[in-house]
Design a protein that fits this description.
alpha+beta; seven-stranded antiparallel β-sheet; 48% helix; 238 residues; 6 helices
């Protein structure tokens, strides 16, 4: 009897072990399926697209739409000095006298004592800073070179003296005022000296000279004025 009970107990224990093993296998299988399904979902095209969209949205470049610079930033980047600085230089320079004319941005410059040379100076602004300077010099009257009269001979002598004085005035005024308008201090004396020399080589109305040095544009030309021919010199700083 005891042997029968022991055999039945052994069978029961064996069956229980079999059931536990099967149950464990089923649990492991179900867990493995769940893990595989989750990974597949994560790697699906829809999920990948969504993740890529999130990544692109996160790493996208910031909006590069240009924003207008403030007046202060524009002044800081300008090649020309502020108008008040230039006006102060005009009022305090000891090389010439400057009188403001009817227009706010127009002055009459007078250079020399014995042979006075007058020039009209106009300037333009950009963001409150000097953008260009324009000088207009009246040229001396030139009598007929073929005339042999005593009066014409005297007039030619006066014209020669005035031309020498004008040459001096052009060099001094350009040499003083062009750098005074340059906020970057990059306008070299050699540029100005070269321009002044070329200006005086213009002989007749319609002759012109153009040059660009270091980003500074210079223009000079002769034209017919209301009374006398005129020499015009322009510097563009922007």
């Amino acid at each position: 009897m005891k042997q029968i009970l022991r055999r039945e107990l052994t069978n029961i224990v064996f069956i229980v072990l079999i059931v536990l093993i099967v149950a464990s296998a089923v649990v492991i299988y179900l867990l493995s399926r769940a893990e595989t399904g989750g990974q597949a979902k994560a790697d699906s095209p829809e999920t990948t697209t969504f993740q890529n969209a999130q990544t692109e949205s996160t790493t996208a470049e910031p909006d590069e739409t240009p924003v207008p610079a403030s007046a202060a930033e524009a002044k800081a980047s300008s090649r020309g000095v502020p108008e008040a600085v230039f006006q102060t230089h005009l009022a305090t320079s000891g090389l010439f006298s400057a009188k403001q004319r009817g227009q706010k941005k127009q002055y009459e410059l007078t250079y020399g004592e014995t042979d006075e040379i007058t020039s009209t100076l106009k300037y333009q602004l950009e963001n409150g800073c000097i953008a260009s300077l324009e000088f207009t010099f009246p040229l001396p009257y030139q009598p007929d070179s073929k005339s042999k009269s005593e009066i014409d001979a005297q007039l030619r002598e006066i014209a020669e003296e005035k031309t020498l004085a004008l040459t001096d005035a052009v060099g001094v005024l350009l040499g003083d005022l062009l750098p005074a308008a340059d906020a970057k201090d990059e306008l070299q004396d050699s540029f100005i000296d070269y321009w002044a020399e070329q200006v005086m080589l213009l002989k007749k109305s319609g002759d012109d000279f153009k040059d660009t040095q270091g980003g500074y544009r210079f223009l000079a030309y002769r034209r017919d004025g209301d009374v006398f021919p005129e020499l015009v010199c322009v510097l563009y700083l922007s």
